[in-house]
Amino acid sequence: TEKSGGCTWQAGQCGAVMKPTPPKNAISSGNITRRRLLLGAVGAAGASMALAGCGFALRGNLKYAFKSIHIAGSSQSPVAVLLARLLDGQVQLTESAAGAEVVLTVLTDRTERIASALSASAQVREVELRQFFEFTLQAAGSMAQAQAVPISISRFVSYNESQATAKEAEFELLYRDMRHDAAQQVLRRLSTYQPA
């Protein structure tokens, strides 16, 4: 089992790998080639599984019971912008609530970083990255009080001050992954929503 970007996958689940036949007169070279091909195939399959598990999965065959939606509130927040991109072509995105069947209102979209583990000398050894997203969903024109839907995602990452620059780049990749994860959760909620 290996971990990549906060996700876990097992190379043994990636499927069988065909092994090439080594040249008759190059046994040592053949072994190296075979090993490289095997590791490459497993790595590629594992990376694909890891990305899918972390929220980079394709939209798939989600169906929606409405044809138009308006994204209100913090509509230019990172997750809201990603949602609009993922919904484009699936349903119509309207400029106002008046022209939509459903209104999704973004209440919160923020990230946090906290120290989750310290060394004996009080140096940070692990950090927790958090993505918070909260929204409401209701039929356009509805006067009912919409219930807020909170989404919270965390990733734990080792930290070393001597590698601060590289870690910042890793954090940004993980935040992007977490935004995708949050957006996918919202899409799944939308796929089960039945406007009154």
Architecture overview:
There is one protein chain. Helix 2 crosses helix 3. The chain has helices at residues 27-56, 78-87, 164-191; strands spanning 2-4, 7-9, 68-73, 92-93, 102-118, 124-139, 149-158. The model is unreliable at 1-22, 24-33 and 35-59 (pLDDT under 50). Helix content is 35%, strand content 29%. Helix 2 links the parallel strand 3 (68-73) and strand 4. The protein is elongated and about 60 Å long. It starts with a strand and ends in a 5-residue tail after the last helix. It has a five-stranded mixed beta sheet, with helices on one face. Strands 1-2 form a two-stranded antiparallel sheet. The chain is an alpha/beta fold and 196 residues long. It contains three helices and seven strands.
Concise account of the structure shown:
With 196 residues, the chain is of the alpha/beta class. It has helices at 27-56, 78-87, 164-191; strands at 2-4, 7-9, 68-73, 92-93, 102-118, 124-139, 149-158.
Largest sheet: 5 strands, mixed
- Output the radius of gyration: 22 Å
Percentage of residues in DSSP E strands: 25-35%
Shape summary: elongated
| Class from secondary-structure proportions | alpha/beta
What is the tally of beta strands?
7
Given as residue ranges, the uncertain stretches (5+ residues, pLDDT < 50) are: 1-22, 24-33, 35-59
Helix content: 25-40%
